[in-house]
Design goal:
This protein has helices at 19-44, 46-50, 63-68, 73-101, 109-132, 139-170, 175-179, 185-213, and strands spanning 2-5, 13-17. It is mainly α and 218 residues long. It has a two-stranded antiparallel sheet. The longest helix is centred in the last third of the chain and has 32 residues, at 139-170. The relative contact order is 0.07.
Length: 218
């Protein structure tokens, strides 16, 4: 729950915002931008967004062509990602404060917390870079930003799972979690992170395998 105190009253609260509401709103920003770009491309830029170099007909535009090929799709997508990134930085700070509040006795815990926070910030910055710098404008920056985004996102998810396991094993504040391991929100969140990490690794492996299998004829 995010709370904003009044400037003249330390105990007063200007407004309250549930974390669930913030999360849903953050996720809906890129979803709305993506749907708008695809629908607008189908209605007004069908030929431009479905054209291919090899002349194979397409019935739906590719993601890159829909969100970055034409206007106003490009501007709507950039606006939604920019609006989406601001709460992500707040969430990164919230997770940093959460990890600092868990007093883990493991000697590497503080260093892993700093690395995890840095990877989270790099993920958000790389997402902004690859969104606002298209491949047609500067291919090197776009490519390196995409690589940084993928590696930092996977590293952040992996470290998040490791930190949650460390806080569960080495802290006393998780006794309630250990007594009821299947019903607490902390365990549910940890299981969600594990599933997302496994899914991301599988999708990354599929994409890497597909890119390696597509080779030009010699």
């Amino acid at each position: 729950m995010f709370q904003v105190p009044l400037p003249l009253d330390r105990d007063g609260i200007l407004f309250r915002l549930r974390f669930t509401t913030l999360a849903v709103g953050t996720v809906c920003c890129p979803l709305f931008g993506f749907l708008f770009c695809v629908i607008w491309s189908l209605l007004f830029h069908f030929q431009e967004t479905t054209a291919t170099h090899c002349g194979v007909p397409n019935y739906l535009p590719s993601i890159s062509a829909a969100i970055g090929g034409e206007t106003p799709q490009r501007y709507v997508w950039r606006f939604c990602i920019g609006l989406h990134s601001a709460p992500r930085f707040l969430v990164a700070i919230a997770y940093w404060n959460h990890y600092q509040s868990c007093h883990c006795a493991h000697p590497r815990y503080p260093r892993l917390c700093r690395i995890n926070f840095t990877l989270n910030l790099l993920e958000n910055i790389a997402l902004l870079l690859l969104t606002y710098v298209s491949s047609s404008e500067n291919y090197a920056i776009h490519e390196n930003s995409f690589i940084l985004f993928i590696t930092s996102a996977l590293g952040h998810m992996l470290l998040t799972c490791i930190l949650w396991r460390m806080t569960k094993k080495h802290t006393c504040c998780c006794a309630a979690v250990q007594s009821q391991p299947s019903s607490t929100p902390e365990v549910a969140a940890f299981q969600w992170w594990e599933k997302q990490l496994l899914r991301a690794l599988v999708e990354f492996a599929k994409g890497f395998e597909g890119s390696c299998s597509v080779r030009p004829d010699l």
